[in-house]
Amino acid sequence: MASPRILRSARPSLSGAHPWYVRLPFYYGWIIVAVGFISSVFSIGLTWTAGLLAVPMGAELLWSRSEFFFYPGVDPRYHWQL
Description:
By secondary structure, the protein is an all-alpha fold. The protein is built from four helices and no strands.
């Protein structure tokens, strides 16, 4: 069995290492802001897409706008057709 002195010297020294957020050239809070912004852009984009597609899809399916948004919410058979 190896002595504790040999095991201690085999481990890398972490005394001079800094955490990742200290090594960044900018404040790491901006990463959180960027991720939040990107996720909100995608969620808003998905919400607005239904409104943009309602007119052409409604015309093709011969549905009014109220039918277009009402049926998928009520009848699960229409979820896969949209």
